[in-house]
């Protein structure tokens, strides 16, 4: 084989591997996705969020120009400007996707908090429901406190069903139920809202450490009928301005 061709092949292989290693992967992914791509789903109606949505389309197309740190910086600058764009109801689904992707990529509670605030706008339910729970392998992230039930196949085999029951924010009580045929190890991450100082998370009488603005981490083997009891200090729930 021609030595020059070997060098060319090695060069492109190195560049390709380097790109794959540096392009950010998701810490968790939405569970309820549907069949359309992000760009199709939001119908190009980005309104004042158009610049931020460019990062979404770059990520979806695996564009090497995508820069997660630049995405977060642009996001923070946008919020600091207190844009009037939040009154553009038709463009808000794009804002949901921006926060949802940042949540998937970073695992930061603040993006889930924005989605929680947006969930009060009933017209966005179909978009926000995709981020109530996110998952990576056998790691489940509880991002929003809304009724939902999901089932998936554990990596070691067998179906796992996870059901969340709550009337939040009318009540601060949230119940997470596990159903499965065999005991399975799952890492559960429960978002503790930034305002919720004093939240309790209990499994079989064992209380787990909670800190506002982070996720409560529970790693254990679960079995049929296991229950996680969450009590949020709903009296501290902040009043949302219209």
Automatic annotation (TrEMBL):
InterPro entries xrefs: Beta-AFase-like (IPR049174), Beta-AFase-like_GH127_middle (IPR049046)
Residues of the Non-reducing end beta-L-arabinofuranosidase-like GH127 middle domain: 139-234
Coiled coil: none
Record Pfam families: Glyco_hydro127M
Name of the protein this chain belongs to: Non-reducing end beta-L-arabinofuranosidase-like GH127 middle domain-containing protein
């Amino acid at each position: 084989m021609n030595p020059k061709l070997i060098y060319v092949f090695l060069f492109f292989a190195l560049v390709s591997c380097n790109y794959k290693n540096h392009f950010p992967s998701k810490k968790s992914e939405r569970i309820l996705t549907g069949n359309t791509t992000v760009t199709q789903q939001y119908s190009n109606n980005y309104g004042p969020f158009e610049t931020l949505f460019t990062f979404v389309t770059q990520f979806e197309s695996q564009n090497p120009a995508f820069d997660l740190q630049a995405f977060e910086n642009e996001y923070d600058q946008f919020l600091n400007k207190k844009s009037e764009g939040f009154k553009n109801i038709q463009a808000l689904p794009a804002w949901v996707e921006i926060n949802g992707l940042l949540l998937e990529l970073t695992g930061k509670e603040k993006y889930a908090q924005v989605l929680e605030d947006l969930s009060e706008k009933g017209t966005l339910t179909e978009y926000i429901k995709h981020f109530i729970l996110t998952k990576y392998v056998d790691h489940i992230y509880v991002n929003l406190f809304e009724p939902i039930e999901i089932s998936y196949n554990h990596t070691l085999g067998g179906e796992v069903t996870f059901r969340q029951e709550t009337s939040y924010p009318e009540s601060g009580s949230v119940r997470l139920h596990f159903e499965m045929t065999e005991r399975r190890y799952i890492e559960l991450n429960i978002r503790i809202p930034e305002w919720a100082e004093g939240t309790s998370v209990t499994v079989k009488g064992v209380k787990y450490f909670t800190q506002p603005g982070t996720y409560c981490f529970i790693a254990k083997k679960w079995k049929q009928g296991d229950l996680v009891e969450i009590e949020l200090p709903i009296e501290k729930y902040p009043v949302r301005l219209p």
